[in-house]
Design a protein that fits this description.
Elements lengths: L1 H13 L24 H8 L5 H16 L4 H15 L3 H14 L4 H13 L3 H14 L4 H13 L3 H14 L5 H15 L4
Helix pairs in contact: 1-6, 2-3, 4-5, 5-6, 6-7, 6-8, 7-8, 8-9, 9-10
Length: about 200
């Protein structure tokens, strides 16, 4: 599970603004037209199962937009935090992320990145508090929902963990297999085994 959270951080740090893709389905616009789609349209594309290329492209574009704070300073602090996390310099990462949150408390990704850092340090209470802020700002944040599910599972709140993971997968059906595996593991524990 922890590997999934780390991979979300790494992916977010590497998302390129020049994503391009094609689709045979006219109802899903991908590639260069993504820049013209609203975030709601991107989530609609993401939520349509069956076209992994379109879904993955929409997912990456959503993540790219989440990383755009509207401030060069905040964006630079986020980049520095990602680099510090990658080198496991967590003290520096905390400093950068605390600055992000102080300067722009309505920037959901600042809270999300710090929640991830708290999770990596097994500080689940602090991570849950930051995830609550993320979801208040962006209720469709599939990464935060997946992280919430993982933390709830770690602290033995299985029913809530299952609900959070299912919600994340409903929003983003292309999430990492670890989310699906966690759901498969939790279902019999929470709902019992079918006869």
């Amino acid at each position: 599970m922890r590997a999934f959270v780390v991979s979300l951080v790494a992916l977010a740090a590497l998302v390129s603004p020049s994503l391009a893709s094609t689709s045979d389905r006219p109802d899903i616009v991908v590639g260069g037209d993504l820049a013209n789609q609203s975030i709601d349209q991107l989530f609609e594309t993401l939520g349509k199962p069956g076209d992994e290329t379109a879904g993955s492209t929409a997912e990456a574009e959503i993540q790219r937009r989440w990383l755009k704070s509207g401030s060069d300073t905040i964006d630079l602090l986020m980049q520095w935090a990602a680099e510090a996390i990658a080198t496991k310099d967590y003290a520096r990462a905390y400093d950068f992320l605390d600055a992000v949150i102080a300067l722009k408390p309505d920037f959901a990704e600042g809270w999300n990145r710090r929640a991830t850092l708290f999770f990596l340090q097994d500080e689940y209470g602090k991570a849950l508090s930051d995830i609550e802020k993320v979801l208040a700002l962006e209720p469709r944040h599939f990464g935060a929902l997946a992280g919430l599910g993982m933390i709830l599972n770690e602290i033995d709140r299985k029913k809530e963990a299952l609900a959070a993971l299912r919600k994340a997968l409903t929003i983003d059906p292309y999430l990492d297999d670890q989310v699906r595996d966690a759901i498969k593991t939790l279902e019999p524990e929470v709902e019992g085994r079918q006869i």
